[in-house]
Write a structure and sequence with these properties.
Layout: H1 9-26, H2 28-40, H3 42-47, H4 55-73, H5 77-100, H6 102-106, H7 110-131
Helix pairs in contact: 1-7, 2-4, 2-7, 4-5, 5-7
């Protein structure tokens, strides 16, 4: 029997999160790309502090995303997903609309908008993985 492709939007999204989203969450490269993007925004944020996210917060978020990448690399994927979910949510709460989307509209600076979109993507994918993955297994008694 061949399985038919999902028909509803909800099933399509959950199917993607269960297959490809799981690959994103289990790979340290996605978290490392978030750390690198936050670090890449740092020099421009120092020049334009009113439009870009605050430089010190970019460094803090870059370190947090890097720690999450290290956790995923060491095999603690569920813990890394929880860390990425929390720090992505904090990034969006701290920087908000004013420092993520508004610079793209006002001065055509796409960096903050890309970082905000990436944080939103990470929040969804890592949050799904963290919430739908078994955190531990029962110990086998010998």
């Amino acid at each position: 029997m061949s399985s038919s492709p999902p028909t509803s939007t909800r099933k399509i999204i959950t199917n993607w999160l269960d297959t490809r989203g799981r690959n994103f969450a289990e790979s340290p490269l996605n978290a490392l790309s978030s750390a690198g993007l936050a670090l890449a925004l740092y020099p421009t944020a120092r020049k334009h502090p009113r439009l870009y996210p605050r430089p010190t917060t970019l460094l803090v978020f870059s370190v947090a995303f890097g720690v999450s990448a290290g956790m995923a690399y060491e095999g603690y994927t569920v813990d890394a997903a929880g860390t990425m979910t929390a720090w992505s949510a904090l990034y969006l709460l701290v920087n908000g609309w004013k420092r993520t989307v508004w610079p793209a509209v006002r001065v055509r600076a796409l960096g903050p908008a890309v970082m905000g979109g990436k944080a939103l993507f990470d929040l969804g994918v890592y949050g799904w993985y963290w919430g739908n993955t078994k955190r531990w297994e029962k110990e086998k008694v010998l």
